[in-house]
Amino acid sequence: MIKGCFNGEQTDLNFLFNCSNLEELHLDSMIIDFDQMICLKDIYLPKLFSFSLLDCFIISGSGKRYEEKFFKWLDYIMEFLKNHSNNLKELKIISYRELREGQNYLKSILDTLSLYCQNLTLIGLKLEHIFGYMKRFERDNLENVDGVLNEFKSFCNNCPNLQKIILFASIYYNFNLSEELILIFIRSLPKSLKSLSFEGVIEL
């Protein structure tokens, strides 16, 4: 198992090519140059069952944090997940908050999981992945979140073995979830679910 941050240093993910027996990979709070993430699309770890990417800090070696190719980091992660569609059982993925401005990653993540990661028993996502809005932007219109909730429902329908869902709130702002949204969310949950937990500050 590889877990945690390497003393705040940049991480070269090419080392994974030498880890064919790795079962758990938790890249949490690491500093990763997005150029180093390109290798993920070619990596296959046959024994991997648990992958975690929690609030990593993705940097650009060129210093241009918002150039177009910088936001392809998510594409590399999605290809990595596709490579492990048969053996991956546990997934927690939360991106660094500033990267959300680069692309509509909500639909991309849920689409990929729904199509390629149907053997998951545990999923950890941010509230944005489910409800698609943030209080600080005052996007409280239910119409804005219907699409994302439908994507989440589709994901749940395609993962018959899903037993645990962890939803992470942001440390930067609170969510204010209406009863109507909560009800829609509950109706979307799979019958196989045994555990649902919320982490962070959520206003109900």
TrEMBL record:
InterPro entries: LRR_dom_sf. It comes from the Eukaryota. This is Uncharacterized protein. It comes from Rhizophagus irregularis.
